[in-house]
Amino acid sequence: MASESPIAQVPDPSVDYDDDLIYQQQDDDDGFEQDAIPQILKLDLRGVRMELDRDTLVSLPESLLIAMFPNGLILGRQDDYADDDYDRQAGDSQQRHPSANQQQRQFTSNDEDPVSTTPSSSSSSSGSAGQPLTHDDDMVTDDDDFQVTYVDFDPVCLEYVLRYYRKAQQMSMEAQQKRLHEQHPDDDSINDPIHNSPAYYPLLDKQPIIVLREELEYFCVPTKKNLSVPDMASLKLQCGQFLRQRDEIFAALQKSIARENNLAEQHLIDMLCDAGFSRNDRWGHRALEPTRTCIISMGLVLLKTTGPDNHMATAQKLLLFWRKPARKCWWDGNSEEINGQTVRLWARRTWTLELALL
């Protein structure tokens, strides 16, 4: 008995399926896929307006995109993606009370866009792929607000990544021009077996970047008891500032290695330092998260593929982390003097390692 399930059915090779949509190969330039994400995205990152083009967005590290869009990319309200019930109710209300409806829209727009009423936010800058949107009330329209996607992410961190991307692209272009200028017709280096390795192909025309991100959640245990809520909040902030100033990348992991003699962690540090980091490197970006006892740090470095040492073996290992972020988590605790009192500081550090190709 033949199965009616499309999963179990096997196509008959003697039948022409050209007219069957299931067996037709769809064109890569599908209109829906192209229009699913607009060419220019308008983002609002904690009050800072930024325009980011689609190509730059998809080239960002996976770990960064997950942090920016933990629930997926939900674009701002579009005209063709409006709620029919909402539009119908809004239309009826506008016909009955046009002036009141306009006032309500103005009030809602101000609530959804607090930046327009905050003068200090008007001087914020945008990323590499776009221009900052104006914060002037006269220039911001309702249609613009519908197109804006609100993102709970630090704009300074994103600007740091975009700035490093620009630097990496510039260095990659200069290296390619230099390589073409120095290459001779009788150069047999391309026939080297390591150049013919499949793992080497992405390194020929792409600029690899090592992306290391740390999420540090800290917990304060003061020796003094019965602290008031404002005093405890102030103590948490001071502890966060204390930890933020300790910005050496490998310092905490080195202490964990010395305490537990973990060879795997030592191998991780050796691999990262051989690939481009330095043992005394500091985080390129390190900042406290608002309303959270958490510190986010980012470190980016160009992957070494040439030099006196054999960096290609390490580079091939790190290619395994391309679009596949790996995480490592550990705890550490220390007693520190904060504002004249002894505080037990517990820190939960989560590292995310990834390789990005430009």
UniProtKB/TrEMBL annotation:
The protein's matches in SUPFAM superfamilies, at most eight in alphabetical order, are given as: POZ domain
Q: Where is the composition biased (Polar residues)?
A: 96-109
Instruction: Cite the record's Low complexity compositional bias ranges.
Output: 116-128
Q: Where is this region: Disordered?
A: 82-141
What InterPro entries does the record point to? SKP1/BTB/POZ_sf
Q: What is this protein called?
A: Phosphatase activator
Organism, scientific name: Hesseltinella vesiculosa
